[in-house]
From TrEMBL:
Substrate binds at residues 154-157, 206, 251-255, 259, 322. The lineage of its organism: Bacteria, Bacillati, Chloroflexota, Chloroflexia, Candidatus Thermobaculales. One of its GO terms (molecular function) is NAD binding. The keyword Oxidoreductase applies. It comes from Thermobaculum terrenum (strain ATCC BAA-798 / CCMEE 7001 / YNP1). NAD(+) binds at residues 31, 36, 87, 123, 157, 265, 329. Pathway: Nucleotide-sugar biosynthesis; UDP-alpha-D-glucuronate biosynthesis; UDP-alpha-D-glucuronate from UDP-alpha-D-glucose: step 1/1. This is UDP-glucose 6-dehydrogenase.
């Protein structure tokens, strides 16, 4: 059992705290937001994350998980202090470490022993751990021995708890082997490969991983665009590519672009980091350009169908940047609605969980109770987040209530044939012409002209 303090109760901090408590440690989560801490003490989770509420309640009831706004109370006599704080982009694209530095300066004023390990989980520029370590000894020279380690998180919103408990890898960056071994012990109950390295390499692993995943998405989005032009089907293309183990299937789903609190800011921060050190990160810039262009492509498609957008009523299904979260930060759907507003469209929208957050950000968008209310009288509907419930929409009903039955499926969720049979004009992403496949085996399909395909029926 370890004594752990977590600074920051956002997605990363709260999930990390609750999971460490679940593993049997005594955990105190600290935040300067009084309302948030009061809410957590009453058992209120400040955001939607499947399974988190139950996990927090269980560990609070077992006296393993505590919340405070008081640094002095929270930081004394701890084995580990985890930093889970925001590093938002500054105006030049670099990650802003002001909050991180302020918190570490406060730690240096409060703690009394050099035995504690300070572990940074926030995504921060390469070199941050070393600079935080220097900061501690500047603020309090008696603490010159305190080690600051890097331990990047790879949690996906929507599956953060299982990502924490069964990760693909645990990365520990330390300048001191003994400190790295101590941190490894905290993760002992978790069955995953542990990579121990220096702090700069660990910090770089986080940026490089996110940038690579974003690259895969922009790559498949560009391939989808070419597929549309030449009449190929990107789902089959991605499947065929993914069967090559060197490529892998994951993150090859074309869509309306990546969003969220990590990818956009991390790719930008890495490009900035490279540039200030004399590198020329052309590929990273292209990844960002393709992503921004992907939002605009939805409007091109809409204009192609409707001729003009001004004064049209456009319905939007899905607001969060991906399913199973109410997070709308950097959501492609929000960006697309902003572009539509600029073009003078009337917008109606529905999302299973993100509407309370969205209505504050998009006051001119009419929030609806369900997908049908959105479709009613709309000139076109855009499907922008792949929520499972959208797969079972009654498409005939939708076609009958729209003013013009046009569906732009930005996530390839709907079955194009069924949509067409229901009377909708269907436009997907990189799906070429809609063809009929005849099923010949459970997992094999045959094309009408006799060519085989191993498409396993994702759609
Ligand atoms: C991501 C990383 O996966 C995680 O390791 C890191 O710690 C934080 O950032 P998250 O932002 O929760 O996690 O979402 P993720 O599931 O990775 O999706 C990011 C974006 O990419 C979403 O907008 C999603 O719709 C998009 N995406 C993902 C695609 O467009 N196509 C894909 O094939 C996969």
């Amino acid at each position: 059992m370890h004594e752990i303090a977590i600074l920051g109760t956002g997605y990363v901090g709260l999930v990390t705290g609750a999971c460490f408590a679940e593993l049997g440690n005594s955990v105190i989560c600290i935040d300067i937001d009084v309302e948030r801490i009061d809410g957590l003490r009453r058992g209120e989770i400040p955001f939607y994350e499947p399974g988190l509420e139950e996990l927090v309640h269980r560990n609070v009831a077992s006296d393993r998980l505590f919340f405070t706004t008081d640094y002095s109370e929270g930081l004394i006599n701890k084995d580990f202090i985890f930093l889970c704080l925001p590093t938002p982009p500054s105006s030049n694209g670099a990650a802003d470490v002001t909050i991180l530095r302020a918190a570490v300066a406060r730690i240096a004023e409060v703690i009394q022993s050099s035995d504690v390990l300070v572990v940074n989980k926030s995504t921060a520029p390469v070199g941050t751990c070393q600079s935080l370590q220097r900061l501690i000894s500047t603020v309090n020279p008696r603490l010159a021995g305190v080690q600051v380690l890097s331990n990047p998180e790879f949690l996906r919103e929507g599956s953060a708890i299982s990502d924490f408990m069964s990760p693909d890898r645990i990365v520990i960056g330390a300048e001191d082997r003994y400190a790295a071994e101590r941190l490894r012990q905290v993760y002992e109950p978790i069955d995953a490969p542990v990579l121990i390295t220096d702090t700069k390499s660990a910090e770089m692993i986080k940026y490089a991983s996110n940038a690579f995943l974003a690259t895969k998405i922009s790559f498949i989005n560009e391939i989808a665009d070419i597929c549309e032009k030449v009449g190929a089907d990107v789902s089959v293309v991605a499947e065929g590519m993914g069967l090559d183990k060197r490529i892998g299937k994951a993150f090859l789903r074309p869509g309306v672009g990546y969003g969220g609190s990590c990818f956009p800011k991390d790719v930008m921060a890495l490009a900035h980091l490279g540039a200030i050190h004399g590198a020329d990160p052309k590929l990273l810039k292209a990844v960002m350009d393709v992503n921004t262009h992907q939002f605009r492509r939805v409007l091109f498609k809409l204009r192609e169908q409707l001729g003009y957008i001004e004064g049209r009523t456009i319905g939007v299904w899905g607001i969060s940047y991906k399913p199973n979260t109410d997070d709308i930060r950097e959501s492609p759907s929000v960006e697309i609605m902003r572009l539509l507003e600029q073009e003078g469209a009337e917008i109606k929208a529905y999302d299973p969980v993100a509407m309370p957050k969205a209505s504050r950000r998009l006051p001119n968008v009419r929030m609806c109770r369900n997908v049908y209310e959105v479709a009613e009288g709309a000139d076109a509907v855009l499907l922008l987040t792949e929520w499972t419930e959208f797969k079972s929409i009654d498409l005939k009903r939708v076609a009958s209530i729209m003013r013009t039955p046009i569906i732009i499926d930005g996530r390839n969720v709907l079955d194009p044939l069924k949509a067409q049979e229901a009377g909708l004009h269907y436009v997907g992403v990189g799906r070429g012409k809609v063809r009929k496949y005849r099923e010949v085996e459970s997992d094999a399909l045959i094309h009408p002209d006799g060519e085989w395909s191993t498409l396993s029926g994702e759609d």
